[in-house]
Description:
Blueprint: E1 2-8, E2 11-12, H1 15-28, E3 40-46, E4 52-61, E5 64-72, H2 81-93, E6 99-105, H3 109-117, E7 121-123, E8 134-140
Parallel strand pairs: 5-6
Antiparallel strand pairs: 1-2, 1-3, 3-4, 4-5, 6-8, 7-8
Amino acid sequence: MRTKKVFSHGKTLDARLYELVQIMDKNIFFGCANEFKVNREWWVILNDANKIIAYCGSIYTEGICIYIRAWVRKDNRGKGLQKKLINIRYKAALKNSHTVITYTTKDNYPSANNLISQGFKLYFPEYAYGGKEMLYWIKNIG
Length: 142
């Protein structure tokens, strides 16, 4: 397995993989907002056959990194890939952010546990940007 950044702040780094992630995201997160915009970064994890088995994205704004969209193929879950995606984004956020935030659905215990194990704490934002039915997580950098 290998990790590859496919998009960074308006620049496509691998057009084929970036297009595949957009197609996958539209099907996996059906009905959700389009998250493929300029102030984002996107990564994939590829298996030995160069197939995408996981992907994730981040938004950067005013010193805050927001983790968006993380997905791991079902037959690859439980192998530490989500923690790897969390850490990839955290390392990128170290460059220009002071805080990392994200959210999960209330019933997504594996994601919540992975975030907690990586130092995230539950918080209650002033504006529930992901919806009122979500749990919100924060980690300060530094």
